[in-house]
Amino acid sequence: MKKFKHTNHLISEKNPYLLQHAHNLVEWYPWCSDAFEKARNENKPIFLSIGYSTCHWCHVMAHESFEDPEVANLMNDTFVCIKVDREERPDLDNIYMTISQIMTGGGGWPLTIFMTPDKKPFFAATYIPKHNRFGQTGMLDLIPHVKNIWITRRNDLLYSAKEITGSLTQISHYKSGEKLNKDTLKKTYDQLLLNFDKVHGGFGSAPKFPTPQNLLFLLRYWKRTDNKQALEMVEKSLTEMRKGGIYDHVGFGFHRYSTDTKWMVPHFEKMLYDQALLAMVYCEAYQATQHKKYGETAQEIFEYVLRDMVSTEGGFYSAEDADSEGEEGRFYLWKYEEVKKLLTSEETEILVRLFNIKKDGNFTEGITEAKTDMNIFHQTSSIEELVNCLDMSEKDIKNSLKVALNKLFSYRIKRMHPYKDDKILADWNGLMIAAFAKGAQIFDESRYVEAACRSVDFILENMRRSDGGLFHRYRDGQAAVLANVDDYVFLIFGLIELYETTFNTKYELAQYHVVI
Q1: Which of the chain's ends, N or C, has fewer CB atoms near its CB within 10 Å?
Q2: CA separation (Å) from 461 to 167, 275, 315, 458, 514?
Q3: Phi, psi of 80 (to 5 degrees)
Q4: Which architecture does CATH list for 16-172?
Q5: Are the C-beta atoms of residues 459 and 314 closer than 8 Å to each other?
Q6: Taking the domains of the chain in order of start, what are their residue ranges?
Q7: Each residue of 254-270: pLDDT tens digit?
């Protein structure tokens, strides 16, 4: 067992992200009254760091700064330091991410906030390097500067914090908008069309996220209006994403986003909510078009979740990390010689042509410390094109491809796996329940029904409060954190879909019990 030289106040937590930082040299506290009382008593500002366990840049900042004695000593001397998991406390993350957007015009994780002991922020940033770099002030210079201002010009900071808090209060006072109507739908469609990437699918530029909610909207808009272009936007996006490196061609499932516009170089973490929502999109696209490739992709996503993301009790885990063996994407990358050694010459030629595998690697940018001899599987040729250039039938190529990918999967499974965040969240489970229920209806697959039912039963048995309400998070035998509105909405969504799949009144009645 590894021995640690230092332990901080996070050691008693159940949350995986907080436990990752329990042996940092920084004297982290969880979000608690003790931390704020200490800040008031010692007259120190708060260093609030918000992230999540599978966040690559959270890992980078931890290794550079939070595990570094020089930076940690500065932080402990200047601040009372608090760690928050954005997935466990989305309410706090929403508040401080909004503050970051007000102050800087952007946001991301890790989210770094400096604030007064009464929770009024005066500084916001995302990742901060240890040393000054790329025009950004590093921790070693920033922290002494903040300490000096806190001592010599505190009134300026307090005034700034008051102004920022006032801006947040103004934003919080929402005015009721106009009623939704056909014009609202048309305006939404027009905005999506304007932002659509006609070459590579998806919306916007790099970094590019799958945004399944946009695609689900477009499917419904097409169904309502018979607008063919809406469906074409969905099909183009789903096809290009499935071909890209954002999809795990060996082990299935989607990575979180692409660092480029072509879907080639992903950020390799895998999130449960992405699998749920993308499975729904591919299911519904299959229903709309009857194109087998969409149905097969949905079933592959389900296969990944059933294989890697289900607890023994039935709840669905939250995420898998991007990093392994100290490198981003290492688990998913391949060398040409590695592929050649594992496969027959025929299988190697098929994969080389289909996935653009090169001896010196097929990408140079997008991954931290990327190695030039590594390859990301991304489909650049079609099966039909391979038929034309290889002396093989389409059936033989598909069979050889399946065998080859299975060989690679069997080899890859022996590698050091990325870290798995095994906490169970009520809202994300609700989405996955809905996806499996939809999949069961479409593919008549009993395993999908069973998976959805087990998750519901787990939540109702283990994540209910004594007053009948829900807890947000479960891990290691403990349910904790009061549920948010998303937990109730998404779980009820899952219950509705499951009832429509099974017609079991147990799930119909559970909707009302959850609300009450």
Answers
A1: N
A2: 42, 24, 11, 5, 12
A3: -100, 125
A4: 3-Layer(aba) Sandwich (3.40)
A5: no
A6: 16-172, 183-419, 424-515
A7: 999 999 999 999 999 99
